[in-house]
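Consider this:
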Amino acid sequence: MPFPSANADKSRRQFLATAAAGAAGLWARPAFGQQNKAGGKSRLDAAVSRGLEWLKKGQARDGHWDVGGGRYSVAMTALAGMCFLMEGSTLREGKYTDQVKKAVDWLTAPAHQKPNGAIADSSAPGELDSYMHGHGYATMFLASAYGEAEGNEEQRKLERAVTRAVDFTAKAQTRKKHPLAGGGAVEVGGWGYVSAADRDFDEGSVTATQLQALRAARNAAIPVPKETIALAVAYLEACTTPQGGIIYSYTLSGGRAVNGEERPALTAAAVCCGFSAGDYSGTLPKKWIKFCKDRVPVAAGRVPHDEYTNYYFAQFLYGLGDDRYARMFPTEAKDSALTWSKYRSAMFPYLLEQQTPDGSWTSGYIGAVFATAVNLTILQLEKDQLPIYQC
């Protein structure tokens, strides 16, 4: 994209440098000390086992999950499948190999992965109006399964499926010109509920889902266009308010990230999904982390979007470990630092108390499959089975 002047181009480079700052440090694996000490671990293992068995029993014969009436089938299949990969099962071995394989086969079947690479269940209610969430989760799951596979025809099949899915994700991205204070503009790109070819709209939760999917693909050595990441990096920067939170939609806001319009859930997702390339100074993650610290309740009962929020909040706290926050904010009192141990101590007992006798979690607004998959993801982070969760 041409820029009107050297000063404008300089402003663009400064903008992108700021936007790219921050997540590489979060993506480098920290040292975590003694996180698997005795004391509740056997109870934790039992709870995870019951949850996995509940998901196993709920898988349809054809390999999918949904939340009733066929709704959200692609997203639920992917999120449930991730839980079995986190347990340590793969396409070739493990207690839940059959569940992983059936989920992979269902998502990659011609009925669900379209010729253009999109992964969607056309028979699911409302799917035509909102398929990008499911596509993102499915891409993440398939890339993670591919990364754990061995060299054979099944792996080659997965490689083709993920490559096509990534290609669709890149083409589905929106493009907007975001004006810069110093003159000129920078191109930004997010994602909405459907491809930009179907509707020119973007919003934060779908954008986070696509970024995490692209990172999983990159982890599996599937090529990801650098331009796609650069546009998304700029999008998140443009959606960050002076207070450090992420707004719902760049398009709906008219390109203005205004204090008071932030969404804590989206801000937690932004920390996790970060960026995939470049030199990072930590500017944006610091803003987002500070925003979340003051606004995300932990083990505090039902609040709007709490499963979604904790899905990402837990991931980035696990990435922080017990010492990274103090290094990022050296002037703050140590006892006020965000740490994984503090979160674990508060959240894990809370989640175990909420589990039903059959192994599921049923308090969510979307449904038991979603709530169970999210909580099993949180409770299994310490297993360190998948690169996508090793921030």
